[in-house]
Automatic annotation (TrEMBL):
Beta-alanine binds at residue 65. It is an enzyme of class 6 (ligase). ATP binds at residues 31-38, 152-155, 181, 189-192. It comes from the Bacteria. It catalyses: (R)-pantoate + beta-alanine + ATP = (R)-pantothenate + AMP + diphosphate + H(+). The gene is panC. (R)-pantoate binds at residues 65, 158. The keyword Nucleotide-binding applies. This is Pantothenate synthetase. Its main location: cytoplasm. SUPFAM superfamilies: Nucleotidylyl transferase (SSF52374). It comes from Nocardioides aquiterrae. Catalyzes the condensation of pantoate with beta-alanine in an ATP-dependent reaction via a pantoyl-adenylate intermediate.
Amino acid sequence: MSTAPALAHTREELATLLAKHDDPVGFVPTMGALHEGHASLMRVARERIGDDGPLVVSVFVNPLQFGPGEDLDRYPRTLDADVEVCAREGVDIVFAPGVDEVYPGGEPQVTVDPGPLADVLEGRIRPGHFRGVLTVVAKLFGLVRPDVAVFGEKDYQQLALIRRMVLDLNMGVEVVGAETVREADGLALSSRNRYLDPEQREQAVALSRMLRAAQDAAAYGASSALAAARAELRAAQGVDLDYLVVADPGLGELPDDVPAGTEARVLVAARVGPTRLIDNMPLVLGRGKDS
Ligand code: PAF
């Protein structure tokens, strides 16, 4: 049987609940619409902090990370179901604040500058997005004061930027990346998958097919990996590509000649119908970038 987590809507309620614990705090920040991918983050956090430490999940749709014309208004808000997922995973505290609670001074005048890594990939297509993400994560870290925070590798650039923020701003939080959870056919779990109609759902699997093709061809180098992914894209229908890249694991450019065994990442973003999806997978390169 699962026990309902304590629900905090205000900073004061959160502080009161946290004050009851002195064990290491685990934290999973989310925007709600929780699915099995989020549940797996909670399990990773619980493993890290042990049975006694409080596990906190925040549910907050952060307006600052949505650009004009993005899906802020239609982003799913499903708090009751989210609390049930948290109960099943043994979460101790769900922090579900309103916008005024997180941004008490209104639109913030001080925000986190995400630096150059935010100018590429998602950041190039969604200007201001990572400023919004890092600002809210910094605020939530300030409120929850976690020892360990877990983020999904599915949002790989976000994870890289949060690691960098914690390093550059001496935040003293251990940031853990958790592997992407996939449907049986390979589609990465995402809160946005619910927008796909049945035909688009079939088409969306092309993203993970592209990434797997890249993994299979990586032994021949990064160019071959990209070529294999593009071949999958040509065979796909209804997929409108934003980007497909191979980068080093920190998202820097790969040198032209890399030794066999070099680790890299292949990342893709595409629209399927009106829904924008992202995915990525690790690669181990065989002979070099352009062999
Ligand atoms: O990945 C998300 O759900 C959000 O970007 C995060 C980290 C909760 C910040 O709003």
